[in-house]
Amino acid sequence: MSDADRVALLSNPGFGRIFTDHMVTVRYADGKGWYEPRVEARAPIPMDPASAVLHYAQEIFEGLKAYTLPDGGVAMFRPDANANRFNLSAQRMAMPALPVETFLQSLHEIIRIDRSWIPQDPEGSLYLRPFAFASEVFLGVRPATEYLYLVIASPVGPYFSGGVKPVTIWVSPDFTRAAPGGTGAAKCGGNYAAGLSAQAEAAEHGCEQVVYLDAVQRKYIDELGGMNVFLVLDDGSLVTPPLTGTILSGITRDSVIKLAQRAGRRVEERPISLDEWREGAASGRVREAFACGTAAVITPIGTIRGEDGDFTVADGGPGEVTMGIRKQLVEIQRGLAEDPFGWVHRV
Ligand code: PLP
Ligand code: COI
């Protein structure tokens, strides 16, 4: 592809639609462990129709971003945290742990070779998608003995097409995402497959995302299909659902907690019922709400829609606290502000 064609593509990349020229692959076999990473031209991967992943979905993934820094360098945001979460997901899905150094090396290699694909505009970044799946050709149900790990990369703009404007979210009356003891805290493809019907239902109701309620009492907020949730209360404090095993331990969530605490805000991790959110929005106790994640960054939540109607947080616009935390986070990620936590990992 010519440089001019690439620049044109990168001017409006959308999310996850276009991909760079390369991929990194690492094979695993029982008794041999993980092989050395190989950088290859991005290409279809041949698969036997009996590959275990196609039948029993033994698969995990991660998502993180690389940014261009003001001095022209490139940095990833907290890739060590993604490496650790990848291995927690692997453990839950009975897959072998990948050495953290191999995970980081694979990311370095794809960024080095495909660095010209990183969008230069202030909303753009290179989304990195490391993933691993059971490649063993076998139809018995047990943990596989062979796996393939890959990293692909996609230049991206904002996840939601409207940019940073408040989203409307759907409270599914029927579907839950994860039950205690299930796979909610793992980043495995099956969780997302199981959420697609609810996501389609949300879209039919004019909503961008689903907010899942807990599977036991159908009362407390868990998270969105691909993001964690925070509320900002009238005393300036933040509340977010606790990590009890049914939600993903978001790296953005953790970063928001640390940024808010550094700014002197109280942050409580505790159960939040949908009723508390609705009543708080009506009384003014809940001033702002936002979703956060690698893809979504920090996205204000305006309206919550359910079968029994809508409610809106404040005037439905982006909140001041939300946008302030967003600005701080983005500036650290892009090397525009000091990084007191050591989150920015230069490539
Ligand atoms: N929750 C779910 C279900 C997600 O898919 C994601 C995205 O990765 C998140 C939360 C946010 O996690 P992170 O901030 O690590 O991207
Ligand atoms: C991410 O934010 O990295 C995710 O995996 C979430 C998904 C909605 C793209």
From TrEMBL:
It holds the Pfam family Aminotran_4. Pathway: Amino-acid biosynthesis; L-leucine biosynthesis; L-leucine from 3-methyl-2-oxobutanoate: step 4/4; Amino-acid biosynthesis; L-valine biosynthesis; L-valine from pyruvate: step 4/4; Amino-acid biosynthesis; L-isoleucine biosynthesis; L-isoleucine from 2-oxobutanoate: step 4/4. Its EC number is 2.6.1.42. The modification N6-(pyridoxal phosphate)lysine is found at residue 187. Belongs to the class-IV pyridoxal-phosphate-dependent aminotransferase family. One of its GO terms (biological process) is L-valine biosynthetic process. InterPro entries: Aminotrans_IV, Aminotrans_IV_CS, Aminotransferase-like, B_amino_transII, BCAT-like_C, BCAT-like_N, BCAT_family. PANTHER family: BRANCHED-CHAIN-AMINO-ACID AMINOTRANSFERASE, SUBGROUP IIII AMINOTRANSFERASE. Its cofactor is pyridoxal 5'-phosphate. SUPFAM superfamilies: D-aminoacid aminotransferase-like PLP-dependent enzymes. Keywords: Amino-acid biosynthesis, Aminotransferase, Branched-chain amino acid biosynthesis, Pyridoxal phosphate, Transferase. GO terms for molecular function: branched-chain-amino-acid transaminase activity. This is Branched-chain-amino-acid aminotransferase. It comes from the Bacteria.
